[in-house]
């Protein structure tokens, strides 16, 4: 068995999963901050939340592109 390739795939999977989870949770947190009416908030909070959600979606779509053989031909 090729152990180095197995470790590379496991590492890439871990990095990708952590990236998607961090982007999504950061987007949720920024959305909650933007919706808080009790304090003054910067104008860039809500657009940054949407950017985080967009990057999370792009990461998921790229993963699907890599997994589905029809798209990678």
| Mean pLDDT rating | 90
- Count of the domains: 1
Structural class: mainly alpha
Gyration radius, rounded: 17 Å
Estimated share of beta-strand residues = under 5%
Number of helices: 2
Low-confidence stretches: none
Order of helices and strands: HH
Shape: elongated
Q: How much helix, percentage-wise, in residues?
A: over 70%
Considering the chains and any ligands shown, give keywords for the structure.
73 residues, 0% strand, Cardiolipin synthase N-terminal domain-containing protein, membrane, transmembrane, transmembrane helix
Structure report:
The chain crosses the membrane at residues 6-27, 48-68. This is Cardiolipin synthase N-terminal domain-containing protein. The chain is mainly α. It has 2 helices and no strands. α1 runs antiparallel to α2 (45-67). The protein is elongated, with a radius of gyration of 17 Å. It starts with a helix and ends in a 6-residue tail after the last helix.
């Amino acid at each position: 068995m090729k152990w180095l390739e197995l470790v590379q795939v496991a590492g890439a999977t871990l990095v990708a999963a952590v990236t998607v989870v961090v982007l999504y949770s950061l987007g949720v947190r920024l959305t909650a901050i933007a919706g808080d009416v009790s304090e003054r908030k910067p104008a860039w909070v809500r657009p940054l939340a949407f950017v985080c959600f967009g990057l999370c979606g792009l990461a998921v779509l790229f993963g699907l592109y890599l997994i589905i053989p029809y798209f990678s031909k």
